Amino acid sequence: MILTDYYKFVKLEGQKSRMRIDCTASTRSYDTLERYRDKKGLLKLYIGDNTYTKAGQSGRSDLSLSYKDHISSIFAPDVKLPCWYGDFHNTADAALLVCHNVAFVDGAIQPGSEIEVFVARGQRANRQGLFNMLCDGDLSDEVEALRKRAITDSVTGSNV
What we know:
Elements (H helix, E strand, L loop, with lengths): L4 E6 L9 E7 L4 H4 L9 E6 L13 E5 L1 E7 L7 E6 L5 E7 L3 E2 L2 E2 L4 E7 L6 H10 L3 H10 L1 E2 L8
Antiparallel strand pairs: 1-2, 1-10, 2-3, 2-11, 3-4, 4-5, 5-6, 6-7, 7-10, 8-9
């Protein structure tokens, strides 16, 4: 398998934070994300404009995942596709993202937006090729297998 880990994030209703997304299901197997769980076991990240990387305009990512520090750059190469890709900071790992009903208004992700993050460990150099494979359906079996392995996370209605 190329894809190794899975995390589903949702923008919940009633949150004060404009960019927070909460993990609602995961394989709980990727230490790079697991280290951000709080004492209650909740995993929340923030998605928004990339303010972390200093690359030139052509190399700068569209968005960024963060939690106090930069976790992953996110590239959305085709606005017509519900798929994005990225890489995890200080790792050799690639991120593939599948979006459902994702909308941003004035820089804020809208409630009901869902973002699934699939990790391909050691595949950072192949992230664009993997993105193409994902969009072409070549990773569908792996995507479904990881979704089935996911554990549902309890999410509180915290307004933090």
